[in-house]
Amino acid sequence: MAELLIGSFQSVHAPDYLSSAVDHAIACGENCFMFYNGAPQTTIRVDWQQMHREQFFAKMKEYQLDLANIIVHAPYVINPATNDPVLAKKTLTVLNKEIAYCEHFQVHKLVIHPGNAVNGISVETAIANCAKLINNLTNKNVIICLETMAGKGTEIGANFKQIKQIIDQVKNQALIGVCLDTCHIWDAGYDLSDLDRLFAEFDQTIGLKYLHVVHLNDSKNKCGSHKDRHENIGYGKIGFNKIISLAYYFKIAKIPKILETPIDDNLVKTYSAEIKNIKNKKFFDWKKCA
C-alpha cells in the first residue's frame, strides 16, 4: 500500500518564508503541503528572492520531501471567468506572476478557483472565459488545477460537468488538472457515502488522470447546501469515517491530500492533531484537550 500523502496549508511569511513552511509541515507530521505565495486575500507578493528559496530546497532535501507533492494556491481575489477586460487583464497578470513564482520554487501544481459568472453573463460564457484566460497564460510546465467549488452565489465549477467543459476548451491538456475539495463537492451536492460511485462519476465525466490534488476538509453544512464553510475533520456534517475512507481510497492513493480546516492561534497544534487522527484512522476529540 502506498504511503498516505497528507499535509496542510502552511503559512509563508517573514522572516523565514518558505523555510519555516517546511519546518512547520514536518512538525505537523506531514509529507506534503500547500502554500500561498502571499496572503490569499491580496495579490501583493514579496520578491521571490527574499523567500529563502535555497534554504527551502535544502530543507526539502534534508526531510526527504518531494517537490512533486508541494502545491501552490493562487489568491482568491481574481476572477478567471470575468467578462470585464480590465479585471481579466489583472487576473492574467496575477496568474502569470504566480506561475513564475512556482517555477522559481520548482513547484509544478497551481490551484485556482475557476471564477464567477458575474455581471449577468451566462455560465457557458464564464466557462469559456476561464478556458480562454488559461490558454493565454505564459506557462510551460505548471499544471493549473481547477478547484471544484461549492456553488455559492455565481461560482462556476460546482459540478464535474462544468469542470470538464473548461478542460475541453484548454489547448494544452498536459497543463490542466483538477483539485477536488471534499467540503466543496459535499456542499455542491455530492454524497461521499459511496466512493466507488463518486470516483466512477468523476472518471467518466472528467477523467481520473486529471486529478492532481485533494483538499481534505469536513463541512459545517449539510450536503447540497452550497455554502462552502470548512470544518475540522470529524467535527462536521461529512464526518470522520467518510473523510478517512476518501483519504485512503485506493484509486487516489498517489494524490496529495491537503487540509484547509479551521485553525486556532497555533497552526502546528491544530494540524498535527488532525493528521494524527487521520494516520491512526481513529477519532480523538483533541478540541476538548485544548
Q: Can you describe this structure?
A:
With 290 residues, the chain is α/β, with parallel strands linked by helices. The strands form 2 sheets. Strands 1-2-3-4-5-6-7-10 form an 8-stranded parallel barrel, surrounded by 4 helices. Strands 8-9 form a two-stranded antiparallel ribbon. Helix 1 packs parallel to helix 2 and helix 4 packs across helix 5. The longest helix has 20 residues. The protein is globular and about 50 Å long. The two termini are 33 Å apart.
Give the secondary structure arrangement, pairings included:
Layout: E1 6-10, H1 18-27, E2 33-35, H2 53-62, E3 70-73, H3 85-104, E4 109-112, H4 123-135, E5 143-147, H5 160-168, E6 176-181, H6 182-188, H7 195-205, E7 211-215, E8 218-219, E9 230-231, H8 240-247, E10 257-259, H9 267-280
Parallel strand pairs: 1-2, 1-10, 2-3, 3-4, 4-5, 5-6, 6-7, 7-10
Antiparallel strand pairs: 8-9
Summarize the structure.
The protein has helices spanning 18-27, 53-62, 85-104, 123-135, 160-168, 182-188, 195-205, 240-247, 267-280; strands at residues 6-10, 33-35, 70-73, 109-112, 143-147, 176-181, 211-215, 218-219, 230-231, 257-259.
